[in-house]
Design a protein that fits this description.
alpha+beta, Rossmann fold, five-stranded antiparallel sheet
């Protein structure tokens, strides 16, 4: 992890914006072969309130979006149903940004699917107890 974006060579954007939190202040580029690309498209405008950034990725993770200065803005876990990490705050700009609303819908849809999958893969006696609640 980069402890501070000011130490990253060529990181020349302010990733700790001074504008309102509900204001998108910079663009990101989204990688083609990513879940995020199907949700947001090739680019998105995001807000930015971070001073740290991804440096070395963990096993199975891949970078799926970057800021124009190269700072990592999103990661995903390959082969996982829905593991998407973003560096911005979509909850603060979703009211005015349809693409961020789409991101939330996909998150909720996948959480529901995961819950259903877990529910139907548990022992029958547990299902009965859960239904009775």
């Amino acid at each position: 992890m980069h402890q501070d974006t000011s130490y990253i060579e060529n990181a020349n954007l302010s990733h700790m914006q001074q504008d309102q939190a509900t204001q998108a202040t910079h663009e990101i580029q989204v990688e083609k072969a990513s879940r995020l690309r199907t949700i947001l498209g090739s680019t998105a405008h995001v807000n930015s309130f971070h001073h740290q950034a991804v440096d070395k990725l963990g096993t199975g993770l891949k970078i799926t979006a970057t800021a124009p200065d190269g700072v990592v803005e999103a990661i995903e876990k390959e082969g996982a149903p829905f593991v998407v990490g973003v560096q911005w705050h979509p909850e603060l700009i979703a009211e005015r940004d349809a693409s961020m609303q789409h991101l939330f819908r996909e998150f909720v849809k996948n959480a529901e699917l995961g819950a259903l999958k877990q529910f139907y893969n548990v022992p029958a006696n547990f299902k009965r107890k859960a239904i009775l609640r």
